Amino acid sequence: MTLWSFMITPWTNVALSSHHWSYGQNFFFLIDGEAGAESLPGQWPRKRPAVSPIAFTLSASGSSDTAQGKNKAEEAESDEGVFWDGELRQTAIQFIKAKRPVWNLSEIIGDRGQILQAIVSSYVVEIDWLRSFFLPSTPLVLVDHPAQAGSGIRSPTVQEVRPNMIRMTPFFRSAFGVQHMKFMLIFYKSGRLRIVISTANLVAYDWCDIENSAWVQDVPRRTITIAHDAKADDFPTTLERVLECMNVAPALASFLYNGHPELPLQAVRPGALRTRWDFSRVQAHLVASIAGKHEGWEDVLRVGHTALWARGKYASTSPDGPLAPYTCADSDRGAQGSSIGTYSTQWLNEFYTSAAGKSLEDWLDMPKTRRAKLPWPNVQIVYPTLEWVRKAVGGEKGGGTLFCRRKQWEGAKFPQKLFVQSRSKQGRVLMHSKMIIATLDNPNVASDGGGGSESETEQSDDELVAEKNPEARVVGWTYVGSHNFTPSAWGTLSGSKLAPVMNIANYELGVVLPLHSEAEAERASCFERPLKKYSEEDLPWMQEESQV
Question: What are residue 128's phi and psi, to 5 degrees?
């Protein structure tokens, strides 16, 4: 399947803060819409149905073993139910029999008696429901969205909401923008660290009654701590920066001071994760959006859709092996999300430039007047029709996290022709997954030379390499995470090629995974392919017009 799926949130023009990380050609978009919902922390978004938990599925790839093999911590526990090479699935849904492996949250979290510490993040949360998955004595850090009180700067907050459970919120320069990341870091007694990047909020409904996706990766504890590398810019380094921006440090300090001196992760500092856990089998690339104003290429390429450019532009045969750069000029793109944004041709082409691995400097060199007049890029937006929602399990009552407004749809310049139907592979269920799947018409082979050659002879050589080592062949990549397909989530690039600026409203997090075959791309897809365009009679689901 050649698509990108995203959950999409409405775009709001905001004045953004200055926040720097100072450590140290077809598209399909799957649309959902929770960040556009009117809700407060601890509450469900407007019209989110009050139903019981479920789960859904999507599977993914892995990477090569480390040269030294398993460490002692990995050998100390069974490999059953452990994902050293990562696993991407959908969540299970009640009333629907799964057609392939799916996630249940209890399965992801595991035996709560074996958990020493956890850090979790969500846009909305049911605190007591979440707490039930952990022992009352387990230190639990919760990062969620701050209350929308007043206007202007929203300072970070720290609050003990339950015994051994501390709630944190990050910094916002304005009253707009949301903390939308959905992740879990779970530290076990064996030394193992489980990383979960999902599209589901920490509420029962998201894990029981609507389809979501989650990527799960287990990481073993190192037997010997390695030296900190200040120049590293990889998965654990990005994750450390995210934890810093999420205001996790005060919670860890509080736990250490108040009866938990043996926390596996005791501080948020450069190298805190990378030096103590072995990430060598992690094939994914982490992509984060950090609310604020980011200036200069070093900072700009670390966040938003330009981070997608930096991560998606390369696919690796192994975590430590050579990278094969590829461009996506002749590729398919699809994106699914849950909220429809207010789109301009300029922003869609800007996003397309990053997603396709094209020159960002050339984009910034283009006159603004020309950018504003560009035709729509070769992108498809995956969003359910009114008819599909009515016939889905739960009907219109189940469409409470999907957002599109008539004033958007009937706008003079709205890209109706880019919309395609969103149909889950699991049957008549609604999807809350945010996903991109990008595939190349001319797949590349990872090599020391850094990409494919243009000569027929060398292309044939590449094909021979791919036949001998299928993992060397890269046919595309997939994204899954919290980003909806909106400027609020992915950011807006401005400035010049000498002084670029990325403005982002939200906090978002996801992973990019290389795809090594069309079969792998098909497994990664959570919706039916090929995608079907809207007919002239089709209308998108608009929950504000529902009478149910």
Answer: -70, -35
Q: Indicate if 228 belongs to the active site.
A: no
- Which two structure tokens, joined as six digits, stand for 297? 């290429």
Alpha-carbon dihedral of residues 146, 149, 150, 155, nearest 10 degrees? -30
Candidate list 305, 432, 483, 516, residue with the active-site label: 432
- Per-residue tens of pLDDT for the chain, all 548 residues: 333 433 333 333 333 334 444 333 445 556 555 544 333 333 334 444 443 333 323 333 333 334 344 444 444 566 889 999 999 999 999 988 998 999 999 999 999 999 999 999 999 999 999 999 999 999 999 999 997 655 678 899 999 999 999 999 999 988 889 999 999 999 999 999 999 999 999 999 999 999 999 999 999 999 999 999 999 999 999 999 999 999 999 999 999 999 999 999 999 999 999 999 999 999 999 999 999 999 999 999 999 999 988 886 654 333 333 223 333 333 455 566 566 667 899 999 999 999 888 999 999 999 999 999 999 998 888 899 999 999 999 899 888 888 888 988 988 888 999 999 999 998 999 999 999 888 776 666 543 333 333 444 455 454 544 555 556 677 888 999 999 999 999 999 999 999 999 999 999 999 999 999 989 988 998 888 888 999 999 999 998 888 87
CA gap 151, 153 in Å, rounded: 7
- Binding-site sequence positions for substrate: 182, 434
Q: Please state the residue numbers annotated as binding site.
A: 182, 434
Query: Is 180 one of the catalytic residues?
Result: yes
The model carries a pTM of: 0.82
Please identify which of the residues 180, 294, 305, 483 carries the catalytic annotation: 180
Fold of 27-545: Endonuclease; Chain A (3.30.870)
CA distance 432 to 415: 22
Query: 3-state class of 325 per DSSP?
Result: strand
